Amino acid sequence: MIYKFRRDGLASRLWHAWQVPFIYRLHKVPIDVIWEPSYECHISLERILKPKSFYNIKDYDKNDFSEASCPFLFFGGKINEELIDVTAIENLLYATGNGSQEPLWLKTEYYSEILHPTDEVQDKFNKIKHKYDISSDVISLHIRGFEPTESGEASREATREKITKKINQYAEVVNEVLLDDRNQRFLIASDDPEIEDRFISLFPRNFFKIEEDKKPTNIKGLRFCHRDTESVMQSFVLLLTLSETTYSSQFIPFEEISTNGSFFTRFPPIIQKIREFKEFL
User: Fold this and answer.
1) What is the pLDDT of residue 218?
2) Cα–Cα distance between 199 and 196 in angstroms, integer?
3) Domain residues for 267?
4) 99 shares its domain with 172
5) With 91 labelled, which of 61, 152, 178, 211 sits at a CA distance of 20 to 30 A?
């Protein structure tokens, strides 16, 4: 039995990580997990997550997932030579629900079984937490940047209006919060430094960013954004850091914060929900 993760960014891979323990529960057979380091996420799985008994890390073999046997962007399961895509796995999960539980809640139990950060990640996280005094007293925002086309052509302006509107929307909420507490601290995070600098310039007394967050900017497009091991590690630490705060989804509706379909923007609430199942860090 094999489970192959996507080849793109960190958060988009983690978004489907719940499927590994879910499939294991269904079949009770250890799963060979394929996590291929790529240009967009150049890190091995064991560097960020502690190993679990229900899966083994398998070296990528193109013969197992050749273009002839599955689509190039395929990710999902291969069980007894049968390919099962992620939609089919999600449908299996929903069939186990009683109709009253939200899909995200059903998934979180399985997320909690696989998302155990390594000691290295936890050490980096604890240093950030103490340095910046991270707690639920901090309100955090993550906004995905102005994203050019995949070709890297000069289309940055195409999304500028949309993201500027989003910034203004957040700024209105921030002003309302500051009316009640002028000393409220805010953490701003983005793959676009222009967005971070914009908030800090608007609210210099209240906003800060994580200086150690060295993930590369996305302003030239994903194909031109090499995420090396250290930057991916710091991105994972940032996800954990955001989840330790009062995240912006508690002030702005969930669908409103999901700018450009960003998995990264949507992932901190999942980590927060994991704490309902276990002590996460």
Assistant:
1) 56
2) 6
3) 119-274
4) no
5) 61
Residue 148 contacts residue 155 (beta carbons within 8 Å): yes
Q: CB 224: neighbour CB atoms within 10 A?
A: 15
Closest CA to 210 of 160, 140, 264: 140
Length of the chain: 281
For residues 222 and 91, membership in a common domain is answered with no
DSSP notation for 33-82: EE---BTTB---HHHHB---TTEEE----TTTT-TTTS-TT--EEEETTE
Examine the domain organization and report whether 202 and 125 are in the same domain: yes
> What's the rounded Cα separation, in Å, for the pair 175 and 187?
15
Count the alpha carbons within 13 Å of 110 in the hemisphere toward its beta carbon.
23
- The answer to whether the CB of 124 falls within 8 A of the CB of 57 is no
Strand ranges in 181-271 using DSSP code E only, listed in sequence order: 186-189, 207-208, 246-247
pTM for the full predicted model:
0.87
